[in-house]
Amino acid sequence: MKILSRPNLQDRTWLGIGGVAQAEVRIEQPGDWERWFRFVQREGLRPLTLGRGSNLLLQDGDLPFCVVRPPAKPRPEVYSRTNERCVVRVPAGFPLPGLLRWLQDHGLAGLEGLSGIPADVGGAVAMNAGSFGQSIGQCLHRVRCWTPRTGLVWLSGTEVQYAYRSFRPLGLGREWIIHEVELVLSPADGAFLKQKRQEVLHRKRQTQPVDARTCGCTFKNPPQAPAGQLLDQCGMRGRKVGGVGFSSLHANFLINSGGGSFAQAIELIAEAKRRVRDRCGVDLDPEVQIIDPCRSSPRGEGSPEPIGEMP
Ligand SMILES: Cc1cc2nc3c(=O)[nH]c(=O)nc-3n(C[C@H](O)[C@H](O)[C@H](O)COP(=O)(O)OP(=O)(O)OC[C@H]3O[C@@H](n4cnc5c(N)ncnc54)[C@H](O)[C@@H]3O)c2cc1C
Questions:
Q1: Among candidates 282, 280, 251, which has minimal Cα distance to 268?
Q2: How far apart are the C-alpha atoms of 262 and 291, rounded to whole Å?
Q3: Which has the closest alpha carbon to 255: 206, 227, 229, 288?
Q4: Buried b (16+ CB within 10 A) or exposed e, 232-253
Q5: pLDDT for 105 beyond 70
Q6: CA distance 32 to 290
Q7: What is the C-alpha to C-alpha distance for residues 256 and 70, in angstroms, rounded to an integer?
Q8: Which of 24, 127, 200 to mutate to test ligand 1, by most ligand atoms within 8 A of the CB atom?
Q9: Coil, helix or strand at residue 156
Q10: Are 136 and 171 in contact (CB under 8 A)?
Q11: For residue 62, how far is its CA from the centre of ligand 1 (angstroms)?
């Protein structure tokens, strides 16, 4: 297990905002979890689970975290197969775009709507990422989590709860990290999947700033209307504070156009929430995970449960 000293987390997030952590560890084999946790305790650090950093807004400056990255190997593998369905096992640190290419090559459908989501598989499950009518939670067969209390444990589909942008393994408390997952997929034609993925990517390119430094959707969509529409009505499209601003292409995407800071992003988020509450009477709930060691919860405001972060 290699320990990287003082990683700059600005380079670990899509938004390009974040300070310097104390250490970073990539889990390579199951026994690394205990070794990593002993290290964290010995050094008095706070654990922070990082996927691809595509949904994170991190505080700047010196951070008391030891970042842990779940295993990225081995490659996905077919665990079981019938004519109707195929169970694929994949490590949590494996990139979701790479998994979608692998599924296309193996003629397996169920996740092609998630094309363009720059997550790791573990981060996608932790957030129950989804788009174009599909979510990764719908395809979960089993999830293997690590906790300091239980070590590695498999949970079946009935032992987890997922909803719109939320996922919770039952009975593990707050201290869990996804190690690997099994997904159920259905056989499909590879050429059809390729076309589907291209359509999704084309549509996203037209409506989202996919090449910008962004953290995806800033707010969850409330039942009343899409968050982007409400932000638009309140004049937040294109609104900037310093180097951070809401995209002019999609009002719910926060962008760092260079030199943006945590404080600027928080100021904009607070302004957006205030304007939407005052004008539309809707309380927006951040989807982006706001991680500030000075706040009691490292998860996004309004998130009912911390995920992947141990107190
Ligand atoms: C250009 C762009 C487009 C996007 N489009 C979409 C979209 O269409 N749909 C959508 O749902 N989201 C979208 N997102 C948001 C983001 O990609 C998802 O939320 C994604 O699931 C985050 O995965 P990640 O690996 O980057 O997680 P991170 O951002 O690294 O982490 C997110 C949270 O998950 C926790 N976490 C990460 N890995 C684990 C693990 N193994 N075990 C436990 N907890 C873990 C972290 O601690 C953190 O709290 C988009 C983002 C960008 C930048």
A1: 251
A2: 10
A3: 288
A4: bebebbebebbbbbbbebbbbb
A5: yes
A6: 27
A7: 27
A8: 127
A9: strand
A10: no
A11: 23
Q: Which atom of ligand 1 is nearest to the CA of 210?
A: 1
Q: What are phi and psi of 81, to 5 degrees?
A: -150, 135
Please state the atom number of ligand 1 nearest to the C-alpha of residue 309.
Answer: 47
Domains of the chain by start residue, with CATH? 3-69 (3.30.43.10), 77-196 (3.30.465.10), 209-291 (3.90.78.10)
Helix (H/G/I), strand (E/B), else coil: 29: coil
Three-state helix/strand/coil letters over 186-248: EECCHHHHHHHHHHHHHHHHHHCCCCCCEEEECECCCCCCCHHHHHHHCCCCCCEECCEEECC
Catalytic residue list: 165, 217, 287
- Please tell me the distance from the alpha carbon of residue 226 to that of residue 222, in angstroms, as a whole number: 6
Distance separating the N- and C-terminal Cα atoms of the chain? 23
Give the model's pLDDT for residue 128.
97
Q: How far is ligand 1, taken at its centre, from the CA of residue 131, in Å?
A: 13
- Residue 300 is classified by DSSP as P
Q: What is the rounded CA–CA span in Å between residue 264 and residue 266?
A: 5
Identify the pLDDT of residue 2: 87
pLDDT tens-digit series, residues 35-44: 999 999 999 9
Pairing of strands 289-291, 253-256: unpaired
d(CA 27, CA 49): 11
Task: Measure 39 CA to ligand 1 centroid, in angstroms.
Answer: 26
Rounded CA-CA distance 275/82 in Å is 53
Closest ligand 1 atom to residue 120 Cα is 25
* DSSP-derived pairing of the beta strands 177-187 and 140-147: antiparallel
Specify the pLDDT at position 310.
32
